[in-house]
C-alpha cells in the first residue's frame, strides 16, 4: 500500500518523516492481516480491517506516547476495528457443514447460493504467515488458519475470540492481553476458559479438525511439509486421471465435500465418489495448478473447454487432512473471479501450457 492510499495528505507530509512511519507500520501488515482474518473469517474483510487500522494509526500517531510497543498499539487498533465490524455484521460466517445436513450424492440441484459475506473465505498462506521463524510457532500459525478452525472461531463472542487468538495463537501473556483489551488478567483467563469450552463443544458438530492450534499431533504442519506435499501429489494424480478408486483410497471415511457459495455438501468417501461420477462428472479431464491456502494443500482447478479448447477456471480447491494424512475435507470455492487473481492463478490454461 502506498502512503497516498493510507491517508489523503500522506504525500504532503512525507518530508516530515512520515515515510519512516509508513515503513514501520507496513512491517506489521502480514501479521495484522492474519489476526484480522482469524477474527473476521473473510480475506477481503481482513484486508479492509488492516487498511482501516493503518488509517487510524496514521491519524493518531502524534498521540502515540510509546508507553507500549508499536506492535501492541497496532493490535489494539486492529482489535477495535474488528469489534466494530463484527458489531455491524448481519450474519456469522459459516461453512456449508454448519448450516444443515449433508445431501445425497445423486442430487440434481446444488441447493441455494448464499452471499459471499456468509462464508468463511480462503486466504493465501503468504498473505498472513511469515516465511520463516520458529518451527513450532510456524506450525501453530498454519494450523490456526485452517478453514475448520477459522469457522470454529466465528462461533465465539468477539472478545473471547480476540482473547483466544492472542493467547493461544500469538502467545501473548494474560497481562499483555488484558492491557490490550482494557480489562483484568482474571477476566482474560475466564474468557479464555469459556472460549476453549465452546470450541470443544462445537468441534464435533463443525469438523473433527477444528481443534486448538498445537493440539494436533503429526509430522509437521503446513502445505510445504513432506507428507502434505506427497498427499497433494497423489490426490492430483488420481483426480486428473479421474481414477475414483485411487482417489477414494486417499479420503477419510467421513470426508466432506462442499462448494461455496452453494449450501449443499456431501459426506462419506463413497458418496463423494458417487458425486464426482454423477453431478460432478464434468470435472473429468481437469487440469490443476498447486497453490498454498489456509495452511493446507490447495490447487486451482480448470475444467476442459469443449468450445475453445484448453481449460477454463472452475474453482479453488482446499484439501483438509487429518493426523493420519487422510483427506478429511474438499472445499471448492467457485468464485474464480475473486480467488484466482488473489492466488496468482490464470483465468485459463492453453493446451501448450498445460502439457
UniProtKB/TrEMBL annotation:
Keywords: Sigma factor, Transcription, Transcription regulation
Keyword set includes Transcription: yes
Stretches assigned to the RNA polymerase sigma-70 region domain: 26-89
Residues in SnoaL-like domain copies: 233-328
One GO process term, biological-process aspect: DNA-templated transcription initiation
Family according to the record: Belongs to the sigma-70 factor family. ECF subfamily.
Oligomeric form and interacting partners: Interacts transiently with the RNA polymerase catalytic core formed by RpoA, RpoB, RpoC and RpoZ (2 alpha, 1 beta, 1 beta' and 1 omega subunit) to form the RNA polymerase holoenzyme that can initiate transcription.
Source organism: Xylanimonas oleitrophica
SUPFAM superfamilies in alphabetical order: NTF2-like (SSF54427), Sigma2 domain of RNA polymerase sigma factors (SSF88946), Sigma3 and sigma4 domains of RNA polymerase sigma factors (SSF88659)
Pfam entry (one): SnoaL_2
A GO MF term: sigma factor activity
UniProt keyword annotation of Amino-acid biosynthesis present: no
Annotated spans, Disordered: 199-220
CDD domains registered for this protein in UniProt: Sigma70_r4 (cd06171)
Protein's UniProt name: RNA polymerase subunit sigma-70
Domain RNA polymerase sigma factor 70 region 4 type as annotated: residue spans: 147-199
Amino acid at each position: 500500500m502506498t502512503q497516498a492510499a493510507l491517508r489523503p495528505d500522506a504525500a504532503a507530509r512525507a518530508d516530515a518523516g512520515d515515510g519512516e512511519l509508513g515503513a514501520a507500520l507496513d512491517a506489521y501488515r502480514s501479521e495484522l492481516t492474519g489476526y484480522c482474518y482469524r477474527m473476521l473469517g473473510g480475506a477481503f474483510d481482513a484486508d479492509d480491517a488492516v487498511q482501516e487500522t493503518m488509517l487510524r494509526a496514521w491519524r493518531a500517531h502524534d498521540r502515540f506516547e510509546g508507553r507500549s510497543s508499536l506492535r501492541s498499539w497496532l493490535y489494539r487498533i486492529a482489535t477495535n476495528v474488528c469489534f466494530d465490524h463484527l458489531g455491524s455484521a448481519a450474519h456469522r460466517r459459516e461453512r456449508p457443514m454448519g448450516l444443515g445436513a449433508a445431501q445425497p450424492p445423486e442430487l440434481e440441484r446444488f441447493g441455494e447460493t448464499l452471499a459471499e459475506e456468509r462464508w468463511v473465505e480462503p486466504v493465501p498462506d503468504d498473505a498472513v504467515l511469515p516465511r520463516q521463524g520458529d518451527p513450532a510457532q510456524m506450525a501453530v500459525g498454519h494450523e490456526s488458519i485452517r478453514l475448520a478452525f477459522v469457522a470454529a472461531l466465528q462461533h465465539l463472542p468477539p472478545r473471547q475470540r480476540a482473547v483466544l487468538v492472542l493467547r493461544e495463537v500469538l502467545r501473548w501473556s494474560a497481562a499483555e492481553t488484558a492491557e490490550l483489551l482494557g480489562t483484568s488478567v482474571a477476566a482474560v483467563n475466564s474468557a479464555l476458559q469459556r472460549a476453549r469450552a465452546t470450541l470443544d463443544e462445537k468441534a464435533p458438530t463443525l469438523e473433527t479438525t477444528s481443534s486448538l492450534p498445537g493440539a494436533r499431533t503429526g509430522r509437521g504442519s503446513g502445505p510445504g511439509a513432506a507428507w502434505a506435499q506427497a498427499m497433494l501429489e497423489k490426490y492430483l494424480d488420481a483426480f486428473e486421471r479421474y481414477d475414483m478408486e485411487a482417489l477414494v483410497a486417499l479420503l477419510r471415511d467421513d470426508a466432506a465435500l462442499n462448494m461455496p457459495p452453494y449450501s449443499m455438501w456431501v459426506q462419506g468417501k463413497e458418496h463423494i465418489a458417487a458425486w464426482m461420477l454423477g453431478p460432478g462428472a464434468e470435472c473429468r479431464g481437469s487440469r490443476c495448478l498447486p497453490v498454498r491456502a489456509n495452511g493446507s494443500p490447495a490447487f486451482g482447478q480448470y475444467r476442459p473447454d469443449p468450445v475453445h479448447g484448453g481449460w477454463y477456471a472452475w474453482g479453488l480447491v482446499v484439501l483438509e487432512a487429518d493426523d493420519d494424512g487422510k483427506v478429511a475435507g474438499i472445499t471448492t470455492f467457485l468464485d474464480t473471479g475473486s480467488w484466482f487473481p488473489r492466488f496468482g492463478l490464470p483465468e485459463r490454461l492453453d493446451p501448450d501450457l498445460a502439457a
